[in-house]
User: Which sequence fits this backbone?
């Protein structure tokens, strides 16, 4: 089975949701740069404050900040990992190449109207990072996490205007990585507009294929 994985795709495609499932299923640590940056913001760190203005605007945080964060988390993960939301630029992809070997990149593909609908209905648990959706996968009790009862939050960048900028940023800066990894023969395209269980099944088949 391929164990050093990258989940690549536009915002709202379901990378985080599937990373959570696959990480639990195969005991692979999940390294999500968006979560790491939000933690830095919640801790009021200097780096977090610097990153926040880019994130609130729907833009990418500068490579040198994200690369450093990635390197700290990746360090010591010898038995596999899921990197979720990184790389997003060619510079980040080169940095990742210099840090480790990747077995497979899963590209989550879905149309923009589905992405926007998913993003604006997303709610997150601030304690365990579980992801819900008010229309697709709502919590059992009114906006409280099923696992720990914490009040779910609506990300500040999950409003429609910013969501559309984030999707545009993906096409401008990140989409070229699809070709980059395809040419290296390690890209698997996932039809991410289908129900969650189907998407999970497709990922499991891809990472277990010879
Ligand atoms: P980040 O937190 O990584 O956000 P993102 O890439 O914009 O991705 P999302 O979290 O929006 O989407 P997702 O694909 O994980 O979808 P999810 O599974 O939650 O980054 C935020 C910001 O941080 C960036 O804008 C940037 O500023 C900065 N940043 C982060 N990494 C960076 C980097 N490497 N370089 C520079 N800057 C960086 O699903 C979405 C919703 O849909 C959920 O509600 C879920 O329940 C639902 N859903 C999921 N799958 C399905 C399905 N199959 N059917 C129905 N509903 C579904």
Assistant:
């Amino acid at each position: 089975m391929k164990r050093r994985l990258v989940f690549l795709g536009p915002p709202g495609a379901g990378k985080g949701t599937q990373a959570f499932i696959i990480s639990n299923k195969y005991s692979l640590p999940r390294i999500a740069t968006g979560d790491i940056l939000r933690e830095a913001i919640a801790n009021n760190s200097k780096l977090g404050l610097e990153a926040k203005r880019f994130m609130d605007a729907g833009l990418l945080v500068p490579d040198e900040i994200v690369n450093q964060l990635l390197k700290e988390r990746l360090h010591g993960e010898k038995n596999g990992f899921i990197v979720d939301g990184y790389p997003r630029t060619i510079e980040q992809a080169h940095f990742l190449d210099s840090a480790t070997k990747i077995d497979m990149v899963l590209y989550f593909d879905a149309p923009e109207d589905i992405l926007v609908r998913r993003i604006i209905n997303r709610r997150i648990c601030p304690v365990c990072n579980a992801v819900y959706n008010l229309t697709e996968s709502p919590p059992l009790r009114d906006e409280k996490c099923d696992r720990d009862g914490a009040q779910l939050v609506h990300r500040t960048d999950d409003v429609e205007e910013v969501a559309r900028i984030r999707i545009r940023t993906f096409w401008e800066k990140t989409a070229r990585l699809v070709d980059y990894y395809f040419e290296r023969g390690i890209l698997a395209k996932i039809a991410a507009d289908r129900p969650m269980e189907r998407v999970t099944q497709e990922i499991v088949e891809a990472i277990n294929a010879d």
About this structure: The beta strands are 4-8, 30-32, 81-84, 104-109, 122-124, 131-133, 187-191.
